[in-house]
Amino acid sequence: MGHSIGRRLRAEAQRTDERRLVVLAGESGTREPALRDVVADARLDSETLSVVSQASLLGCERIDPTHSDKLLGQTRDGVVYDATERFDPDVLAHVVGAIAGGGLGILLTPPLDTWPDRRDRFDSTLAVPPFGVGDVTGHFRRRIVATLRSHPGIAIVDTDTETIESDGLRDPAPRLRTAEPSTPDDHAFPAAVYRRCRTADQVETVAAFETLLAAGRAVVVEADRGRGKSSAAGLAAGSLAAAGRDVLVTAPERRNATELFDRARELRADLDAGGDGGGQSEAPSDGGSEDSRLPIEFDAGSIRYERPDVAVEQASDADVVFVDEAAALPVAVLDGLLDARSVGFTSTVRGYEGTGRGFDVRFRDRLAESDFDVTEQHMDDPIRYAAGDPIETWLFRALLLDATPAPAQLVTDATPENVAYRQLESTTLLENESLLGEVFGLLVVAHYRTEPADFARLLDAPNVSVRALTLDGHVVSVALLAREGALPADIRGEMYEGGRVAGNMIPDVLTSQLRDEAAAVPSGQRVMRIATHDAVRGRGLGSRLLSAIHDEFAETVDWLGTGYGATPELVDFWRENGYSTVHLSTSRNERSGEHSAIMLRPTSPDGEELLDRHTGWLLDRIEGTLSAPLSALDPDVVRAVLRSIDEPPEPDLSDFEWRVLAGSPHGAGLYDTAPAAFARLTLRHLVEPAGESLLSARQERLLVTKTLQHRPWETVTDALNYHSRRECMRALGAAVGTLIEAYGTDNARREFDRFE
Fold first, then answer.
1. Which residues in the chain come in under a pLDDT of 50?
2. Tell me: domain 5-166, CATH 3.40.50.11040, correct?
3. Residue extent(s) of CATH 3.40.630.30 domains in the chain
4. pTM
5. Which of 238, 295, 297 is nearest to 263 (CA)?
6. What CA–CA distance (Å, rounded) separates 102 from 117?
């Protein structure tokens, strides 16, 4: 191609330290020659150029799109994304995030006018059974095309006609030079640390981390991606380890902390060289240090990594805990990390990998109420490209990374009585950018991790729908629903035999794990996410939304369901809205540390039959699972789960077992004589108590930990703060005595009265 679009765009990008994007749109036979022309014209070196594609297009690094997360934490002068066979929003975010200031991104697409109506391999992931790929809409790609055509800094080339639809040039005014970062006059960390800072923001953030040298301090750093917060945390972690501290690092995944560890290793090398090495920190071009071993040992201290669930258990043993990408962790995990002596949190506000705002919305209150002296730091200055970069602005808008709920003052008067229930179609949302932002902003709050692909799923997946409560047009509460079940026999058989059937989470678990091949016959609506605006939480709006959803679907599906990480509060919320537990996972989520619960609310006889079947199976196996894989589960979660089971089990005890139970309050019976009898009596009570105040919460926790989870007496005594094992045993006997009076047979009560 004879044009010089690549050269001119690259020159402008280098002059402004911004990025530019070239879209090469056309059929396959014309895109590759145009790509070679643009790369040559822009003088992109193969050493700093990556191609994200399933095909080998250029003589440079090729990354399969399924491994695009390798680009996280890296920078390239150029990145090519071949989106012709599979346009994945998560891959797009990874690609754009890796382009350095002065660099060029190149996007290969089919012709833009027809692209939204074509279906590719990503669309196949949205077409969950019983839907086909033809049921997937093209709303998300239509939005991408519209934003590509309307944003500055993006050139569009029609490779079929060899014409430039837009040159992407901005001709910006020259930028003023910003002051170089400098070492603070008064600093506790080594000067070498500050010489590695690339912006004044980083200097201030590292200086804030100096407070972690003392116990009882917490530092919270928030920034958009690409501001250098992980690098600042790494320099601080290295400084603390050099000062003799045991530093524990956790993150959603180990790779999330790569930059933190790389900066710490660089600092160690500087200090080993006498503190004169280094200079400003550069992002590694190969994805990290050659030496990736952990822990990182300093003369007096060290830096180690643990998974979030393990870090919670070890937090109190470390001198300092760093939580990288805290926004992508559940609030319950963050809360557990407050057992540390000092703790530093870094949180992405609007992230290329996806983020959640539970950290900002809910966890900050808990942190403020803690005993920590909290220092807050916000970072604005990008380190990879200039502020105001047009490609960052485009990406945030295209993927709705900057979505936020409605301003609080617009919804503060909302009550269950004055809100409107609305079905929000994708077309309605796309016609109203403000409404779309409010919906997606609340859904981000509802989950500790939201990725760009979730946005595409909301707009295009045929099984996904949105319901909301609004006040004067503003979203107060929102639910994301997924249609599941009603699967044909061949797919049910595949699922039963271990095949993974996407988009049918509840039928999948009930079929493949619980061996119920008929579980996917009834149809249902699963509540994937539900969120209420933080300004009006606690007013019953979430329950109002669930009630309206039930009324809408009661005649058309067999069940409503949900699956989530179980906490006492969440289980109680769903129980109060008519949902019953049918499954509790025996393994913990490594990131959240929680066990997942599945709950159903039947809406038809077939749904009732499904619930009854799985309620019975849950009760049949619950004693075994609580005594082994779930023996360490929070007893309050156990209490809430059992309380949410639909039908109470009959104890079905022999006369001998009743006599053992009747004698235990007075020492005449021994727990070890008939432990199963104690467990069955406990289950009878916890599923449907004869009275809400029959036993105290502490007594119920005692019954759970000893009779169901079979924890040793010493463990139970310590956990429930009894003065001695003897007192703990007496307390168990007293609780059992109360249960005998409430649920025992006439003979059991007479036996009990003999000892009174």
1. 1-2, 276-290, 352-354, 356
2. yes
3. 408-625
4. 0.86
5. 238
6. 34
